[in-house]
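This protein record is not my work; I was only asked to verify it. The record follows directly below this note.
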Amino acid sequence: MSLHRIGSLLCAALLLIASASAHAQGDPGRAFLLVANPSLPDPNFAGSVVLVVRVDEGGPLGVILNRPTTISLDAVYPDRADAANRKDVVYFGGPVHQDALLFAFRSATKPAQGMLVVDDIYISGYSQVLDELLRHPENSAEQRFFVGYSGWADGQLEAEIEAGGWYVLPLDIDALFRMNPQGMYEELLRRALVPRIEARESGAPLAAPVHAN
């Protein structure tokens, strides 16, 4: 993996995800979590938890939340003084355009270039937004950095969910900023399975899941 390519922020995928507009903020199903079924055959997503956002045009986009790499942010930008001592772990966000660096973050004001996730949380990939994030290392606990992203064509994710490849959970902000990635998959898989086990044992119908469309 080339640190120079990651740090360049010049690939077309970055422009796609950073400029994509999300649905209206009142839409509760816009952002959600995917938890891979243990039988999911795709090695790119085996054992993964994915934050997914539906956008106005094209299929949903997202980032894998529990795949930390061995790269830290200061290693991506060794010549930047504002990145010195930033030991933030860079995560593997997905198999699409792994030369793109993306960042999820909280912001009290809407960034000039970014995709709304929910409330005050955004995903971007623009260097100007990164500059602003690096000016505030005190906020590093609410900033996450990813190489690559996850994406699906129109209808593809819905078909995968229907086939049983994914469990769908409501968005939990702790999974993005606070939950330990090492135990995240097991915790959220348990969270996804418990209602199904209880419903099966009681004979009660399972509550309708959060849909991806």
User: Anything to note?
Assistant: Residues 3-202 form a domain with the VC0467-like fold (CATH 3.40.1740.10). The two ends are 34 Å apart (CA to CA).
